[in-house]
Amino acid sequence: MKTITASAVKELREVTGVAMMDCKKALVETNGNMEEAKDFLRKKGQAKALKKSSRETREGAVGFSSSKDGKTAGLVQVTCETDFVARNEKFQGLVKKLAEQVLVNGENDLLQQNLIDDDGNVEVLLTDTIAELGENMQILNCKKFKINNGLIGGYIHSNGKIGVAVPLETDQPCYGDQLKSLAKDIAMHIAAFQAEAVKPDQVSNEVLEKEKEVFMAQAKESGKPDDIIEKMIEGRLKKYLKEICVESQPFVKDPQFSVSQILEQTAKELGVKINFETFEKYQF
User: Fold this and answer.
1) In angstroms, how far apart are the furthest CA atoms of the chain?
2) 108, 208, 259, 276: most buried by Cβ count inside 10 Å?
């Protein structure tokens, strides 16, 4: 086996920027061949990624991708350290590519998936981007949506800080610009509003109990009798549910109607039943 000299390790470190021990390991693995060691240090990116992995990632962007027929979609949230990198073209390209990856292959074992349009896998793509842009990055959330009939609408706020996916499933095949626009408009509505659920029965008891405690404390300050306080709390909870459930919120593009009224109106015009049960919202 060829002797690995300190000068060779130093030379490789100067060329790649990788830690000395990693450079020595690469040279050992390649029997001292400098060019092969450089190739081996594709781990260069991995080494840099490891060094950055403890750094906080509070910025980032959300990406959305859908199939041509609108019945399948992918939503992904990718973090980075600074807004400067979040707006970088390379980073935005990564987010878009990952959304397309989720659209095709789903979210399971995403990092280990082979890239749908390139060599390597998702982990290598992420690692290489970390090495190139010099910031820690993580895939924070991702989800694939699929429905039998209808359309999945998506909306990404202009700065990429908020992204929403909304599946509108119909009882029979239904396409066209009207349904497509409605799905996108509801996604835009959810991006603009505080939205915890579509319907009141989807709000968890944990959330309701927490709000009830707050309302109870506020109501007791009034000094009113317990029976009156109970009615006050009941009224405030109903108001709270109306505010956080999408179906009862005033529609962002036409506030004189609620979202559920807009859905009913569109369903009637299209001659179908529209089922709106869920959504996904990622934001920074």
Assistant:
1) 89
2) 259
